[in-house]
Amino acid sequence: MKASKPSVWEQTTHNGETPLFLAVSNCLLENVSFLLINGCNPNTKNYEGSSPLLTAVVRDSYDTATLLIRHGANVNLQCASGRTALHEAAKLGRKDMVKLMLGADAHSQASDSSSILLEAARGGNPDSVTLLLKYGADANIPKISGHLPIHVAADRGHLLALKMLVPVTDLAAIKQSGISPVHCAAAGAHPQCLELLIQAGFDVNFMLDQRIRKHYDDQRKSALYFAVSNGDLSSVKLLLNAGALPNQDPVNCLQIALRMGNYELISLLLRHGANVNYFCRVNPLHFPSALQYTLKDEVMLRMLLNYGYDTERCFDCPHGDKVHHLYAYEGWTSTVIKDTMFCEVITLSWLQHLSGKVVRVMLDYVDQVRICSKLKAVLQNQGIWSEIHFILTNPRSLTHLCRLKIRKCMGRLRLRCPVFMSFLPLPNRLKAYILYREYDLYGQGIFTGSW
């Protein structure tokens, strides 16, 4: 016996779409109503697993969704990825649609464990979030990635939704996730959300868990690193003023600011204790790595030197007056170059024209130093050599030597912490001299330091 043919209402396209599904997809409300009245099944999915109700919500058609529910559409039907119509309504931020489907399971999770509340946080409508919370939605259910609704709201910059989620999110759940909403607000460049989280007591020094860090090539850990990478001055100020530590990441935050050439960002980090003497993990040099970004810019160079950069290490060359060994290549390559001397770098063919000006500035921060034969040979061809030679061959002034002695007694850690100076019982003029204020070009309003 032959199987009976499906009725005209049940026939489908090659994608498994019924006439009702097509009418819903095209938002043809009258056609939808006609088909439902004539007995079309509102729960027949297409081959991709989407139901007419889910499609109506995706099309943002409240009237169509209402019609379907009145004619028996199952609000708990899931698509192939486990999402229900309520997931989509929450994502749209449509409170009216969310309210329409409150008969659905508010605890339903998609195949990636994304909860309905998380989708509401993504949509950003605080009324939808409030409604779901009243209906019993749990703010502490993570998706597979570990993210909670509070993370999504912070990342998207949904301030009002974030306010709703802060008091109902457990710190234990955040710790378990391995990432703080502070990271998310900083990564998304949302200073208002960041300020809310700081005022709520979230730790600005919460570090990314290793399982999260491994997704970043630079192995970043801190929220401050995200803000600095974005060049987001407002967020950087908020974090630093709240006590964020600037030296916690494998790649120093100061290194990122120096790469950008952002004076204000550099100044902010230095004033809050950024380490000017960090060493880069890639191509480590004999001298602290920060200098390589300032060779063409006196303003940045002076910033580093004023905050205790180890200038003497730049003149530390084991060859002295002897002839330097010749290298088969010149400069940096993809191969790691270990412990390259300053004299080898500044005498490179494309940098040696800067050597005189750079060395002259450095001499303001040291006592008598020895210039090795290789560096000397290059400096002698510079117009500023006579001034450099005079400084190298004559005694330094007593005031200069006293300043160096005081700075040495203070130590580089205190030089990186300007607040320390305010506790010293010294006249302000002397404090300014010790801190090289006369060479603070950025503080004097000089915003371009190219030689």
UniProtKB/TrEMBL annotation:
<dbReference type="GO" id="GO:0035556">
    <property type="term" value="P:intracellular signal transduction"/>
</dbReference>
<dbReference type="InterPro" id="IPR036036">
    <property type="entry name" value="SOCS_box-like_dom_sf"/>
</dbReference>
<dbReference type="Pfam" id="PF12796">
    <property type="entry name" value="Ank_2"/>
</dbReference>
<feature type="repeat" description="ANK">
    <location>
        <begin position="177"/>
        <end position="209"/>
    </location>
</feature>
<feature type="repeat" description="ANK">
    <location>
        <begin position="112"/>
        <end position="144"/>
    </location>
</feature>
<comment type="similarity">
    <text>Belongs to the ankyrin SOCS box (ASB) family.</text>
</comment>
<dbReference type="InterPro" id="IPR002110">
    <property type="entry name" value="Ankyrin_rpt"/>
</dbReference>
<feature type="repeat" description="ANK">
    <location>
        <begin position="249"/>
        <end position="281"/>
    </location>
</feature>
<protein>
    <submittedName>
        <fullName>Ankyrin repeat and SOCS box protein 14</fullName>
    </submittedName>
</protein>
<feature type="repeat" description="ANK">
    <location>
        <begin position="219"/>
        <end position="244"/>
    </location>
</feature>
<feature type="repeat" description="ANK">
    <location>
        <begin position="48"/>
        <end position="80"/>
    </location>
</feature>
<dbReference type="Pfam" id="PF07525">
    <property type="entry name" value="SOCS_box"/>
</dbReference>
<dbReference type="GO" id="GO:0016567">
    <property type="term" value="P:protein ubiquitination"/>
</dbReference>
<feature type="domain" description="SOCS box">
    <location>
        <begin position="393"/>
        <end position="440"/>
    </location>
</feature>
<feature type="repeat" description="ANK">
    <location>
        <begin position="15"/>
        <end position="47"/>
    </location>
</feature>
<dbReference type="GO" id="GO:0005737">
    <property type="term" value="C:cytoplasm"/>
</dbReference>
<feature type="repeat" description="ANK">
    <location>
        <begin position="81"/>
        <end position="113"/>
    </location>
</feature>
<dbReference type="InterPro" id="IPR036770">
    <property type="entry name" value="Ankyrin_rpt-contain_sf"/>
</dbReference>
<keyword id="KW-0040">ANK repeat</keyword>
<dbReference type="InterPro" id="IPR001496">
    <property type="entry name" value="SOCS_box"/>
</dbReference>
<keyword id="KW-0677">Repeat</keyword>
<comment type="pathway">
    <text>Protein modification; protein ubiquitination.</text>
</comment>
